[in-house]
Amino acid sequence: MADPARARKLAKRISQIVATAIEHEVRDPRLDLVTITDTKVTADLHDATLYYTVLGERVDVEPDYQAAAMALEKAKGALRTRVGAGTGVRFTPTLTFVADTVPDTARHMEELLARTRERDAEIARAAVQATPAGEADPYRAPRVNPEDGAEVDLGDDNGAFSRG
Prior knowledge:
Layout: H1 4-25, E1 34-41, E2 47-54, H2 65-87, E3 94-99, H3 102-128, E4 143-144, E5 151-153, E6 162-163
Parallel strand pairs: 2-3
Antiparallel strand pairs: 1-2, 4-5, 5-6
């Protein structure tokens, strides 16, 4: 077993090698808009999981995730060869590509926050014209018992009530 610091360093190096290879060396147009976002290496340094995102050609065009996944699978052998040459470890880790869900999750969270802000604004608008259901300030003035006219103490530190 390798120490976690070595696994992190190897993951970072693998990420750099694969990203550079995708950008400059692999000639597949399906990989033009692929970005490596993160890499995790197992403790025994035998398996590397690379997380990637795919951008659309334009903002209004949905990215082609399937084509990118197929292109990464096709280029996996060449990328592993480059990782082996670039890292110098005894055993070159197997590469597994996983689509990164963080951007989609972040977009969903932003939508939820926008809906929450909208709802808060509705509640604030309704609260402007709202009036209290009972007395405006029921705890400030001493209360009077309607039966005998005596003042009622609203409580002491222990929560006990007494008549004055």
